[in-house]
Automatic annotation (TrEMBL):
Family statement drawn from the similarity comment of this UniProt entry: Belongs to the bacterial solute-binding protein 8 family.
Record's protein name: ABC transporter substrate-binding protein
PROSITE patterns: FE_B12_PBP, PROKAR_LIPOPROTEIN
UniProt keywords, alphabetically: Signal
Signal peptide: 1-26
């Protein structure tokens, strides 16, 4: 039976992630450390076959795969980037259980594809991921988490050491090593803060090596990169317009109850590729939690990007509400907006979001 995730647990999970991120990454900033650079290099995708045993470092843990994992558990982490990467690489049969799901996507076909994956009869604890005892009982051969916090014993989750002792490998999306990892290196913290569209493609590359689908990964990366670069070239000579990405359904992330405004890292990169500049460029991801009403009211916004977090949200209605609250924006006067969902996050759908946003940033370009 598929796990059903209501707005309330998702909201609480986001609050928890925001708090952990702020605590773990405050004052930090990019680049991979010597510990994270090694796996990126060793996991570089090629058109060849994977040579097993495959060994590389992942967030400070040495991993060795004797063959492609066949029983994969994908943890929640309020992400869909990992499960979507598995699907786009045709690795559904390798998924023993998946807990990632939003029910809304910039690629509508993803919704049913994710629903079709097994859930393993798992349930989440109060911290909104699978508790240790359920993971160990399921006996996967690989557990994938979008962040290091997915293996935090204090949250009731199985640690990477516990899993290794049970013969279970664990993998963290490398760009998120610092997220939920108190002992993260400065370079890991910088890598987290400087996420980009490239970070999404690097995870696909890593999966290509681990699961011996390197040609498939190479083709997918090439297709996605081409789509993004096609937009970049189209808008390269056009003036950048100020773009605001706001998720009304994530207002629980903001201390002032405002829509969650996404800044920094991959959000800025997606906007830039689409021919814009973030209305709050220069601010870190911490701005999502601290932004106040005055800052939002005085922002220069030429284009509004409404983000959907749950399937019950209506993009057009949310845009109308935001425009009514901030009529002084240029975007409000021209009613210039578009609607996205998962395409601006870390994951394989960035090209979808870049294409969508570019059409309203430079419709005639």
């Amino acid at each position: 039976m598929r796990l059903r995730r209501s707005r309330r647990p998702l909201a609480a999970a986001l609050c928890a992630l925001a708090a952990l991120t702020a605590a773990g990454c405050a004052g930090s900033t990019s680049g991979a450390s010597s510990r994270t650079a090694a796996p990126a290099a060793s996991a570089a995708v090629s058109a060849g076959r994977t040579g097993y045993p495959l060994t590389f470092d992942n967030c400070g843990m040495r991993l060795t795969f004797a063959k492609p994992p066949e029983r994969v558990l994908i943890l929640n982490g309020t992400s869909v980037g990992e499960v979507e990467s598995f699907i786009m690489l045709g690795l559904e049969k390798n998924v023993l259980a998946n807990v990632q799901s939003y029910g809304v996507s910039d690629d509508p076909s993803m919704i049913d594809k994710i629903k079709a994956l097994p859930t393993g009869g798992l349930s989440m604890n109060k911290n909104f991921d699978v508790p240790a005892e359920q993971v160990l009982k399921l006996k996967p051969d690989l557990v994938v988490s979008t962040w290091s916090g997915g293996f935090d014993a204090k949250q009731g989750f199985a640690t990477r050491e516990q899993l290794a002792a049970a013969g279970i490998s664990s993998l963290v999306n490398p760009t998120n090593c610092a997220m939920g990892k108190p002992e993260a290196t400065e370079e890991e913290k910088r890598a987290y803060r400087n996420q980009s569209i490239n970070s999404s493609l690097e995870f696909i590359s890593l999966l290509g090596r681990v699961f011996d689908v390197q040609q498939r990964a190479l083709d997918l990366i090439g297709e996605l990169r081409t789509r993004v670069e096609t937009v970049r070239r189209r808008v390269a000579s056009l003036p950048a317009r100020k773009v605001l990405i706001a998720y009304p359904g994530m207002s629980m992330m903001n201390a002032n109850g405002l829509p969650a405004v996404m800044t920094g890292g991959i959000y800025d990169d997606v906007i830039k590729a689409a021919g814009g500049v973030n209305a709050f460029a220069g601010l870190t991801a911490d701005a999502t939690t601290t932004l106040n009403r005055e800052q939002l009211a005085t922002a220069q916004v030429d284009v509004l990007v409404v983000g959907l977090f749950t399937p019950d949200e209506k993009g057009d209605e949310e845009a109308a509400r935001i425009f009514a609250a901030y009529p002084q924006w240029a975007a409000s006067k021209s009613k210039t907006y578009t609607v996205v969902s998962d395409g601006v996050y870390l994951g394989p759908l960035n090209a979808h979001a870049v294409e969508k946003i570019s059409k309203v940033v430079h419709p005639g370009g």
